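ARCHIVE CARD
CATEGORY: sequence design from structure
SOURCE FIELD: tokenized fold
FIELD CONTENT:
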């Protein structure tokens, strides 16, 4: 493989990582919006439950709490994947900047 081929390969890897990071950032924004919505719904449900408890509201609260936990877990997964990709990207940038 020539140095030009190696450069092209690294640039292709870099491009793929940047594209994936963009995708992850978009997914995280969507998840954060959903998490904020669930937090709002949780607050309202707790208020309603305190004012007039019903089995339906208790079930809804449990469902919202599950959704909230899921949203937080998804965010943690996205953050971990993003951090791994950033490390790969830093490595590629370092290799691209090495003298040949």
């Amino acid at each position: 493989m020539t140095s030009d081929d190696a450069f092209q390969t690294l640039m292709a890897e870099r491009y793929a990582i940047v594209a994936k990071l963009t995708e992850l950032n978009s997914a995280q924004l969507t998840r954060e919006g959903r998490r904020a919505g669930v937090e709002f719904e949780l607050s309202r449900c707790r208020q309603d439950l305190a004012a007039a408890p019903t089995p339906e509201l208790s079930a809804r609260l449990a469902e919202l709490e599950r959704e909230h936990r899921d949203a937080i877990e998804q965010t943690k997964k996205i953050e971990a994947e993003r951090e791994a990709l950033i490390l790969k990207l830093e490595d590629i940038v370092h290799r691209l900047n090495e003298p040949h």
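CARD ANNOTATION: Helices lie at 3-51, 55-97. The mean pLDDT is 94.
SHELF: design records, drawer C
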